[in-house]
Amino acid sequence: MARIAPRTSVAPERLKTLLPSLKPTIYQDPSASKNPNNIRTIAWNPPGTYIATGCMDKTLRVWNADKPNVRQSTELKGHAASIEKVAFNPVKELELCSVSSDGVVRFWDVKTKQVLNEVKGLGETFTLAWAPRGECVVVGNKDDKLFVISPTQSTPISSHQQSVQTNSITFCWSGQRIFASTGDGKTRILSFPEFEPAYQFDYKEGPDAEFKLTGHTSSCIAVEIHPFYRYLATGGTDSLIALWETTEWNCLRTATKMTGPVRSLSFSWDGLYIVGGSDEGPGLEVFNSETGEHLCTYKTATPSPVVAWAPNRYALAYADSGSLRVIGASTGGK
User: By the 8 A CB rule, do 227 and 238 touch?
Assistant: First the structure.
């Protein structure tokens, strides 16, 4: 897979013509389910050298980004149900956390395949976010309860019942705020570790006093923070991507070219671009995050609800036809 030099930005006019012409590298797992929706989650490790995939058929696999042959990958066995979310520790190269609908959260040393820690009995868990310094994760279940979990303790540090359907969570880079997308189309901004509303209106009382980001006409599913904290991106079942500035929390722009629910969002390493994945439509939609302009559609054989940019270059991992695929742009001037 061809790489460009890390930290080399590509101008929008070049990216919009280059990206659709690139052929993907296919990471084929012959033993995996042929269901086109088998891959539920994708995550890069911090140096961008490994990619983890979690699947509906209980397969958890870590791929070497440069070696697509399945024999060069690592399978991590143990979950009894669908793998709903995976994420690498942001400050360690090969520590992976996995969340399954079997109610178990596992921390893995990918190099040795050893389970470093396991927390059970959490309900039907499906969402996960690492604190930016890697000291804990927040995990959510389908009963809208959030758990704070340490990589070294077998029981949760704390649990927090939410009053509204909570779909996805992410941390701000300071680790003092959590953003939670909700079923009523809003995004909550909560203090961490207190899980209290970070901002409130002085002139309102009770639950109505909480300040929320209101940007979707139906359920808000995806939430993603800009790598330099310029924007917060949210995506909903209304097919919209909203970009919010992070000082006054105004919605600066919306991207409207998505087809179907926005299941995943990812910023490029430099924050210039954002990509959306959906379980409907012809492929991946790429936008300029500074203007909201739709740059291109990367055509896929099947809808691609799961997508993730590499953390240090223009390599884009996504699910297509039940397998992991990666495309990477070559270098270009600004």
Answer: no
